[in-house]
Amino acid sequence: MKSNVSRSFICAALLLSGVNLVPAAIVLTTLVDNMSQSVQDDFYLGSTFVQPFTTGGAASLNTLIISSNSGWSASDSPTVSLLDSGRNLVASFVYSASYLSVVTYSAPSYALQAASTYFIEVSGGTGYLNVTTSPNQTGLPSWTIGDLSYRGFDSSASTPSSQILQFSLSGQVPEPATSSLLAIGLGLFALARRRSRA
Questions:
Q1: For 96-114, what is each residue's pLDDT tens digit?
Q2: CA spacing 20 to 30 A to 157: which of 3, 47, 62, 190?
Q3: Which residues lie below 8 Å from residue 87, measured CB to CB, with a gap of 6+?
Q4: CA distance 117 to 161
Q5: SS3 category, 13
């Protein structure tokens, strides 16, 4: 019995040491991106455009880049928001810079949940968004951009469209090595506990 308890203690110590050794192993990466796809059309910002996307793992938001045919300044920038699956406002993006056809927004420190659907809502302002009909994208595994967008003249934006907003979303995620270490530690701890009960 003492031997089993000792093994459990050792495994728990290994797990905790792993947490202490790499507590801040966080990397900034592209979560999902379709900016390289061909532009199919543009969308005038006189009405609201809503683009859904689905997360793979959990992540903390960092930067949103939107494709535009001419860019826009801070004074004529639209309101860009993050909505949850119920289309409720959860965060607002802040205009950062515009260069040619790329407009950059910084994001608040907001934690995206794993395997969840969110919406990027762009409303007001002046100018044009670039849109594509290509479903191709890059990014982390299981992160996807919705095949449909929604538009309208208010925040309901319920009219579906096959045109997809061209954007790139980046964020902070745990380093894979850290996740693996934690998984191994948890596995060893669970195995030791199971054996101690046998």
A1: 999 888 999 999 889 999 9
A2: 62
A3: 50, 119, 155
A4: 18
A5: helix
